[in-house]
Amino acid sequence: MPALGPGGGVGLMAGRPPGPSPAAPIGPPPDLAASVAGEEDPGASLDLSLPTASAAAPPRLPDAAAATPDPMPPRQKLETRAGWLEYTLSGHGPATIVLFNGAGVTLDGWQALYPEIESIGRVFAWNRFGLQGSDEPPPLQDGELIVASVRELMAQAGLRPPYVLVGHSLGGLHANLFARLHPDEVAALLLIEATHPRDDEVLQQDASQLSRGLAKVLAEPPEQFEANLRAELEAAPETVQQVRTAGPFPRVPVAVISGAMEPPKSLLPPDAAQARQARQEALARLSPDGEHVIAARSGHFPQRSEPELVLAVLRRLIERALPPAP
After folding, report:
1. Is 151 helix (H, G, I), strand (E, B) or coil?
2. Which residues contact 11 (CB under 8 A, 6 or more apart)?
């Protein structure tokens, strides 16, 4: 399947009243990676390609600049059978878009897509157990638990299928499982640098090593995300097995976005990185209506480094999945 370059349009920006200062830069931040050794590289693997904090103290911003509006919608909480989960719900349009974060990354990882994504459809973002305002995770947080929790959460929030699932990194594996377990509830999938069930080199990486690297790139103490990261990586083999036994992938449109920049050799050897790229192409072939897009300026976080591209691909996907009524 040929890979497509950047293309498509971007929706008009919707206004939002000023709010608190954001925790991460607004707009398309650089897609830099900090390896565990501390060097910067533009193509990190797994969840290590968030923009890194500068080693030097940033200059003090004027009060007007510090009051930049936060594009993220207000956070809410609902109690599920497994515990309280934090989420946001905003936007309007024919599609209901559900965002699945990568392991150890909060819903703020989608910030660069807001507020434009809200003009495409109704957007549901959420924090899995162990992240920010959600409850602590169980020792093993496998895919079936994650899928059951988000379905219960969405039902309580008043959302109804079909859904357009957008999964990044390990969240892409969870979205893949959701589609297999509940094919009648899914209209389409967008997989962004998503984990393939055969990505053993990624799934078997040491949680402590990844935690140290993630702490550097997030500029956050590990205790803010380590419980989630460990619970999901420990459960990754079980999640992979669940995907393999869940049933066939539904006949729905699929789009895959892969970063062109290779990860540091310290994280993933070149031959393993090449094999992973081939598996990205295989994800696009899950559907006869599949599209594989290369994000030329991105590593593992195209939604942050090239948000316009991600939004354009999402629009095309929704047009294929939900054609306008005659």
Report:
1. helix
2. 116, 117, 119, 120, 311, 315
* Host H or E run for residue 213: helix 207-218
pLDDT tens for residues 49-75? 333 333 344 444 444 444 567 889 999
What pLDDT score does 163 carry? 98
Name which of 5-14, 120-129, 193-202 the model is least confident about. Answer: 5-14
d(CA 300, CA 215): 16
**How far is the C-alpha of 156 from the C-alpha of 89, rounded, in Å?**
12
Number of other CB atoms surrounding residue 90 within 10 Å: 18
Residue with the bigger pLDDT between 177 and 212: it is 177
Strands (E), the chain: 3-4, 33-34, 40-41, 76-80, 83-91, 95-100, 121-127, 163-168, 186-192, 254-259, 290-295
Handedness of CA 295, 172, 182, 160 (dihedral sign): negative
Longest dimension (CA), the chain: 58
Q: What is the pTM of this model?
A: 0.79
User: What is the C-alpha to C-alpha distance for residues 244 and 250, in angstroms, rounded to an integer?
Assistant: 14
pLDDT of 12: 29
